[in-house]
Specification:
Phenylalanine Hydroxylase, four-stranded mixed beta sheet, 52% helix
Length: 304
């Protein structure tokens, strides 16, 4: 067992896979250190009271359905043993960030790209990038809900719709510009809903966004800080709103219910097909041209 185990930014097996262009890998469970397991245990114990107080009911039911280990980093194969029969989804280990099309394509195939490293135990609330607690404890419980899982699949298929629309654009530059605008809109919508969404309930505001559900500091800040602006979700606001990932979020959007969220994803697809995502406001998130070429058929990307 290595001294650093599989700690974020200190896991050679993951960093080597990334350098070698290997996005998917097996979870090398034997490499987790006792410090990694202790960090998971601390995170879980710290989050449980916040979940009970602040999380939506479907998330709480999902946590129970997964029979997640409270004191040890989970094995993805064990997570999938409980998850897959419920919705067909499975967590797949990745070495890090996936390009936008590849990430959305995974969702369309009921696969959720899952980081396998554990954040540094000295910084429980600071995530320079996602870790396994964010992905497994924050995202995956919602994937046990059939309607939510179907919505993720639909969201993933939006990437294929974007690719189809781009094929009809003229020049290479026009295709890249069109894709950049649409993918910005998709990423912003995903950020302000799936990652950082708030929802009304009879007990008041609850969280359903995974970026909130995996961070004690974020969940408290999102619901109770006077520094946060909270607005009802409006499509034109969300798709034109930039965001930054390196601090607590100052602006969040509220849906009325899960049915409301699902209807908004349907609306997002209608807007895309109608050309209403073709000229979204510039700014974050930014995408390299080679990432956007992943949306194009290989022969068109090669000759572009």
């Amino acid at each position: 067992m290595t001294k650093t185990g599989l700690t974020t930014n200190h896991a050679s097996v993951v960093e080597n896979a990334r350098k070698n262009g290997q996005p998917f890998l097996e979870q090398p469970y034997h490499l987790y250190s006792e410090a990694n397991h202790h960090t998971w245990k601390r995170l879980y114990a710290r989050m449980e009271p916040s979940w009970q107080r602040c999380a939506n009911q479907r998330f709480l039911q999902g946590i129970e359905s997964l029979c997640m280990n409270h004191s040890r980093v989970p094995r993805l194969e064990e997570i999938n043993r409980f998850l897959n029969p419920l919705t067909g989804f499975r967590a797949v280990a990745v070495s890090g960030y996936l390009p936008a099309f590849q990430f959305f394509d995974c969702l369309s195939r009921r696969e959720f790209p899952t980081t396998i490293t554990v954040r540094d135990g000295a910084h429980l609330d600071y995530l320079p990038e996602p870790d396994i607690f964010h992905d497994v404890a924050g995202h995956v419980p919602m994937h046990t809900d059939p309607a939510f899982a179907d919505t993720l699949v639909q969201f993933g298929r939006c990437a294929h719709t974007a690719a189809e629309l781009a094929e009809s654009a003229g020049s290479h530059a026009e295709r890249v510009e069109l894709l950049g605008s649409i993918v910005r809109a998709l990423a912003r919508f995903f950020w302000f809903t799936i990652e950082f969404g708030l929802m009304r309930s009879e007990e008041g505001l609850k969280v359903y966004g995974s970026g909130l559900l995996s961070s004690h500091g974020e969940i408290e800040h999102a619901l109770f800080s006077p520094q946060v602006q909270r607005y009802p979700l409006q499509m034109e606001w969300v798709i034109n709103q930039t965001f930054e990932i390196d601090h607590y979020q100052p602006l969040l959007f509220i849906v009325e219910s899960f049915d409301h969220l699902y209807s908004q994803i349907n609306e997002l697809e209608r807007w895309m097909r109608a050309g209403r995502l073709n000229h979204t406001a510039p700014g974050e998130p930014l995408f390299l041209e080679r990432e956007l070429q992943g949306f194009l058929p290989k022969e068109k990307a090669a000759h572009a």
